[in-house]
Amino acid sequence: MTPATHAPQRMIIRNVCVFDGVSDRTQDNIDVLIEGPRVVALTSSPVAGGASDGAIEIDGKGKFLMPGLSDAHVHLMGNSNSMLDFVQGATGALYGNTIAEAKRMLLRGFTTVRDMGGDTAPVKALIDRGTFEGPRIFPSQAMISQTSGHADFAFVYDVPEEFGGKPSRTEEIHFTRVADGVPRVLAAVREQLRMGASQIKLTLGGGAASMYDPLNTLQYTPDEIKAAVDAASDYGTYVATHVYTPAGIRRGIEAGVKSIEHGHLADEASVRLIGESQTWLSMQPFAEDDHHYPDPVRAGKNTEICHGTEQVYEWAKKYGVKTAWGTDLLLEPQSAPRQSVMAARLGDFYSNVEALKMLTSGNAGLFELSGERNTYRGGKLGVIAEGAWADMILVDGNPINDLSLIAEPEANFKVIVKNGHVVKNDL
Predict the structure, then answer these.
(1) Distance of alpha carbon 377 from alpha carbon 389, whole angstroms
(2) What is the Cα–Cα distance from 320 to 331, expressed in whole angstroms?
(3) Per-residue pLDDT at 3 exceeds 60
(4) Cβ atoms of residues 343 and 325 within 8 Å
(5) What is the domain partition of the chain in residue ranges?
(6) How confident is the model over 13-17, as a mean pLDDT?
(7) What is the pLDDT, as a whole number, of residue 159?
């Protein structure tokens, strides 16, 4: 017996002002037709049919329709759990907090995220299956670090695994992986790919959240970085690198990495190199109060990082650098809602329409680097166009005129659609 076939669910969003994620100008009085998970038409003529034919029909009343937002540098597990949760909490609670934050992130309008450290491949699978609500996820799995590097969360008195010690707690839960030497780096990269990573995250320099590494440290030798790049390339994907300094940026690019994460301490020459090499700069518009470090050493590192933001953005524009936007909020669950504030803050450095493009189609260009590891290849992300995934937000107000609207999603995002399903409707 031949199984019955069912027509995909139809949705019509009528009379909206469309920002498609690519154009500088909007289109007024548009009807958007969605069938199943994809957009099939945008038209200035009314789409035939409606609720009487079984379609979901939403009257946009002339409001602003835009693609769903994206974040190129999240830590879903990291920003939904504190360090105390990681060290002392039950493993099940860590994942429960992660799943809960995924839904909150979706309700802030973020329909796609690139996770840069944490065991989120199983969470992604559950969301993609429809078991839980959350954004599309491009997981990196564990952050890979050298001993004493940015993702070494062992206690100072722990014996490194290289000398017979045990993996740290954050390694046991696949938040980090410490690997020294080419053979172990190769194994670490292949381990993350086996677990479902879309891309690989390697730490090449110091950071504010880490305990053992001043910002000016160089982490991983060229041979180790090249080994990671080659292993990722063999799987059709790429390496993204946590790094702030000119020397670290140069070392990473020379080894073939495709994305510089952060880069706030870059000089003009290294930003020019990023542009010339067609490497991505995945940056965050940090303010000092985005993170709270109780000890003066890490607080000082945070201040130094934040002070580099404006100048690096200016150089990135000067040299035509492909720039993505992210947040990198970590280990402070109470700060997770600042994601929306940081998205609006991008308007301090770019025009409103430039910021909206980066938050939608711009980030999507970076996500596409994962090639065949990208499980969302069946449609375009970050745009409203025929054939694109039906991920979109109906906004009360026009963010091109006032970008601060996206800082308050609960009040201003009236409808959120992801994968052709309405996840919020306050009309």
Answers:
(1) 10
(2) 33
(3) no
(4) yes
(5) 10-68+380-425, 69-349
(6) 98
(7) 95
Residues 6+ apart with CB under 8 A from 154: 160, 165, 168, 178
pLDDT at 8: 81
| CB 49, CB 31: distance < 8 Å | no
| CATH 1.10.3720.10 matches 10-68+380-425 | no
Q: Which fold has domain 69-349?
A: TIM Barrel (3.20.20)
Query: How much is the average pLDDT of 335-348?
Result: 97
Residue 95's contacts (CB-CB under 8 Å, 6 or more residues apart) are 77, 119, 122, 123
- Length of the chain (residues): 427
* Residue burial 228-264, b: 16+ Cβ < 10 Å; e: rest: bbebbeebebbbbbbbbbbbbbbbbbebbbbbbbbbb
pLDDT confidence of residue 398: 98
H or E stretch covering 312:
helix 309-318
Mean pLDDT of all residues in 279-285: 98
Two tokens, residue 396: 């009360």
Tokens of 192: 């993350």
- Domains 10-68+380-425 and 69-349 in one fold: no
pLDDT confidence band for 276 (50 / 70 / 90): very high
pLDDT value at position 6?
60
